[in-house]
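Table 4 source record.
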Amino acid sequence: MRYVDFREIIQEELSHHPDGLTWTEIKEQLDLPYDRPCPSWVHRMEEEIGLIRIKNSGRAYVWKLRP
């Protein structure tokens, strides 16, 4: 999967979930082949699409799009 494809499907999925999703929820809903997201891709999405990650209870982060 190319970065551009990954970014677009993540952005589309998060646009339908304004309260955000954890990586596990995103991965399962989109049937992604990655155990963990590529850190450089996550950083690029923070800059390009306004991705924010907020620490949730426990170890999980909630992924959201900046309003």
